């Protein structure tokens, strides 16, 4: 499969690297054509790894992964170009987090979410929110954490959620551990989990954890 | 121990009933002296179960449990009277939830929380936020859900959190399953988990579930 990973931060490079490892063709997209992190990444990964602008990455891809921060997601996807997103699966793994005066704050929050904003801004994209509830190292290697812990998918397009569930299985998340929370509106629920994730991360002193939803039967 | 449980809804009556069952003296507090639900509850439980106003309940208690909704918590505790809360443990199990046009909404949210507001309004109370992340039936009978699933405590007073952890053990939550998230500010984190709880509850069609935090070692 041909993937665009938008964002050259740790999340983008880690997801991109794992996808290349799995045999996919990946273009790491950035604001500018000559982003040194993206160039370096493409050189290190070699073969199936490429670097380009957001638009070049999206144009070449069958599936687009938003790996820039939630607060700049619309801008990055806008630069990628609606014409390069139409009809494609857009996987949003972002959180709308920023630290203000040392305090973590989400924006949007509660009455809206990044996932919903992306779907609204790009109505012909098939947006699936997932993986934002775990650290990037856990995203691509869930075996770092013991147990039948879960990830979530939210989105309007059932077929897109099925395809993303298959991608998650490649990462190491079997389908039974992927909980479908319904439409893209439930992106609010998974984005608002972030403060609890941060509190747990602070308590444990690391990011190697996740939640397992337990219930009878 | 002598408990006040403020609130005559399902949460208050269930927590109160379990405390009586455990051998404690409980006054179920309500806005008015002659609340029929509270009278009926006290009659049914008999012996160690009493009904009274918020102020009567708090005055008689060593520990006060806030079991009214998060949006009316300050009002109920105000009616209980600061002089009846000073120096006492105030356990807040509430969520600031209301449905507006069919949509669940939290208020306060993100930059504030019910737990913090209570501690700020009653600076001499020893506020501990806990149990708001599970259904009331799971609160008092965690064995309804399999596994080593967790609850959280947040608060400024370490001794108060220890005493509440002992109470949780009476309910069936061994100390190893009680995660201390630090000061009362982290009440934001556990209150903002509610939308994910609601999404899961909608998916499962019931409230018999909880999360287990998994990590290596």
Please name the defining characteristics of this protein.
homodimer; 217 residues; alpha/beta; Rossmann fold; eight-stranded mixed sheet; two-stranded antiparallel ribbon; 9 helices; 37% helix; 23% strand
What's the overall geometry of chain A?
A: globular
Average pLDDT of chain A, to the nearest integer?
96
Low-confidence stretches of chain A: none
Which structural category fits the helices and strands of chain A? alpha/beta
Q: Which quaternary structure do these chains form? A: homodimer
CATH architecture of chain A: 3-Layer(aba) Sandwich
How far apart are the termini of chain A? 37 Å
Percentage of β-strand residues of chain A: 15-25%
CATH class type of chain A: Alpha Beta
- Largest chain interface and its two residue counts? A-B, 38 and 39 residues
Main sheet characteristics of chain A? 8 strands, mixed
Report Rg of chain A.
Answer: 16 Å
CATH superfamily grouping of chain A: NAD(P)-binding Rossmann-like Domain
H/E series of chain A:
EHEHEHEHEEEHEHEHEHHE
Instruction: Please give the number of β-strands of chain A.
Output: 11
**Number of separate helices of chain A:** 9
Give the helix proportion of chain A (percent range). Answer: 25-40%
Total domain modules of chain A: 1
Biggest β-sheet: strands ordered side by side in the sheet of chain A: 3-2-1-4-5-8-9-10
CATH topology of chain A: Rossmann fold
């Amino acid at each position: 499969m041909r993937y665009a990973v938008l964002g050259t931060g740790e999340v983008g490079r880690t997801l991109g690297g794992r996808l290349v490892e799995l045999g996919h063709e990946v273009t790491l997209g950035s604001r500018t054509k000559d982003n040194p992190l993206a160039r370096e990444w493409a050189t290190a990964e070699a073969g199936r790894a490429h670097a380009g602008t957001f638009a070049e990455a999206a144009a070449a891809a069958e599936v687009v992964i938003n790996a820039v921060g939630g607060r700049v997601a619309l801008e990055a996807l806008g630069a990628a170009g609606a014409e390069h997103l139409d009809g494609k699966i857009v996987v949003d793994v972002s959180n709308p987090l920023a630290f203000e005066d040392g305090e973590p704050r989400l924006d949007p929050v509660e009455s809206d979410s990044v996932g919903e904003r992306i779907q609204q801004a790009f109505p012909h994209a098939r947006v699936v929110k997932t993986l934002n509830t775990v650290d990037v190292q856990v995203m691509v290697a869930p075996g770092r954490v013991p147990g039948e812990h879960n990830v979530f998918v939210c989105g309007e397009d059932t077929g897109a959620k099925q395809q993303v569930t298959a991608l998650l299985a490649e990462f190491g998340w079997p389908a039974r551990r992927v909980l479908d929370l319904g439409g893209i509106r439930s992106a609010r629920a998974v984005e608002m989990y972030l403060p609890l994730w941060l509190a747990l991360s602070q308590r444990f002193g690391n990011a190697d954890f996740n939640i397992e939803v337990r219930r009878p039967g």
